[in-house]
Amino acid sequence: MVKGCKLAANNGGNDNKAVQSAGIIAVNKLLEAVEEIVKNIVKNIVKNVIKKVKEEMDKTRDPKAVGQQ
């Protein structure tokens, strides 16, 4: 299926289409996996940023923190 780092097919007529189809399916699955990874990373980053902002806002709302400044 792979020849010289490229998708390869036998000399048959329909084999080329079958190999292309298999390659497209594999690439689509890979893209879906990468998309899920990116979504999870972004979700975690946003969650951490929101948590940090809330912590900082709570610090500024704390009357002791205001009196100490």
Features:
single chain; 69 residues; mainly alpha; two-stranded antiparallel ribbon; 2 helices; 80% helix; cell outer membrane; plasmid; lipoprotein; Borrelia_lipo
Please tell me about this protein's structure.
Keywords: Cell outer membrane, Lipoprotein, Membrane, Palmitate, Plasmid, Signal. The Vlp and Vsp proteins are antigenically distinct proteins, only one vlp or vsp gene is transcriptionally active at any one time. Switching between these genes is a mechanism of host immune response evasion. It comes from Borrelia crocidurae (strain Achema). It is found in: Cell outer membrane. It is a lipid-anchor. It is a single chain. By secondary structure, this protein is mainly alpha-helical. The chain has one domain (2-68). The protein has helices at residues 13-61, 63-68, and strands at residues 2-3, 6-7. Strands 1-2 form a two-stranded antiparallel ribbon. A hairpin with a 2-residue loop joins strand 1 (2-3) and strand 2 (6-7). The chain is rod-shaped. The model has no long low-confidence stretch (mean pLDDT 82).
